[in-house]
């Protein structure tokens, strides 16, 4: 719900005037910070889920974190574009308000700062592309781990079933050994009795 609210605020940025755009940006940033704080709590809570639900909960938290990072990046890109527009507007106004004379030696337009800012912006875009690629790789790794964990869980269940069968066989063996022990003791007693009777009555 909070992510959807931030997305709706993002839609207001393009339509906000110069006086209110800063307020909207501050509101969006505050909401994003609040979501990041909640995500830290969610990570702790997901680690306390039962083992069969823990991986799914962690995936949902990672997906939320990726969505919020994307919103944070979109906000920074908008702020950079706004800053560039405002800087260009100031330079345009300064240029229009400036009076040149025939002997004015300082007639060059300072564009080095603009070029440097543009290069920095391009570098930031490349960094965000790398971040998105890294996030995609992390999600793919989490999916692979999920498949591996499912296979491991199945093997554990198979081993548990085999152990249950082994326990049943061991109990049957112990029961049979106990019965054989009594049969042996009974046979020995019967043999001794017969020998005693033979000795007693035939001699």
From TrEMBL:
The chain crosses the membrane at residues 182-202. Its main location: endoplasmic reticulum. GO terms for cellular component: endoplasmic reticulum membrane; ER to Golgi transport vesicle membrane; Golgi apparatus; late endosome membrane; SNARE complex. It is found in: Endoplasmic reticulum membrane; Golgi apparatus, cis-Golgi network membrane. CDD domains: SNARE_GS27. GO terms for molecular function: SNAP receptor activity; SNARE binding. InterPro entries: GOSR2/Membrin/Bos1. It holds the Pfam family V-SNARE_C. It is a single-pass type IV membrane protein. Coiled coil: none annotated. The keyword 4Fe-4S does not apply. GO terms for biological process: intra-Golgi vesicle-mediated transport; protein transport; vesicle fusion. Keywords: Acetylation, Coiled coil, Endoplasmic reticulum, Golgi apparatus, Membrane, Protein transport, Transmembrane, Transmembrane helix, Transport. The keyword Membrane applies. Involved in transport of proteins from the cis/medial-Golgi to the trans-Golgi network. PANTHER family: GOLGI SNAP RECEPTOR COMPLEX MEMBER 2, VESICLE TRANSPORT V-SNARE PROTEIN VTI1-RELATED. Belongs to the GOSR2 family. This is Golgi SNAP receptor complex member 2. It comes from Sitta europaea.
